[in-house]
Amino acid sequence: MADGDRPVPIDVPIRDESIRLGQFLKLANLVETGAEAKPVIADGAVRVNDEVETRRGRQLVPGDVVTLGPLAARVATGDVEIDVPW
Q1: Reading across the β-sheet that carries 71-76, which strands appear in turn?
Q2: Residue 72 pLDDT grade (very low, low, confident, very high; cuts 50, 70, 90)
Q3: Burial 7-21 (b: 16+ CB within 10 A, else e)
Q4: 63: left (phi > 0), else alpha (psi -120 to 50), else beta?
Q5: List of residues 6+ apart from 59 with CB closer than 8 A
Q6: pTM score
Q7: How many other CB atoms are found less than 10 A from the CB of residue 60?
């Protein structure tokens, strides 16, 4: 952890210019399934750029940071393999 209580984000590359929040949570392994993303988002447990986000369809772009509990993932570009520590 850095910045007090803020987790250090792991870069998770996407193929396109943007990605929906629900899809990104699954891609970043923050949830196991897309169905699991819906209630987690609806309950206000997900933050995007330090603001609570309750819209599963929220479009994310490179640089956006998604936080769920003690985990954080940053939307990135490039061909980097996804190798998150969780």
Answers
A1: 10-13, 71-76, 65-68, 46-48, 51-52
A2: very high
A3: bebbbbebeeeebbb
A4: left
A5: 18, 19, 20, 21
A6: 0.85
A7: 22
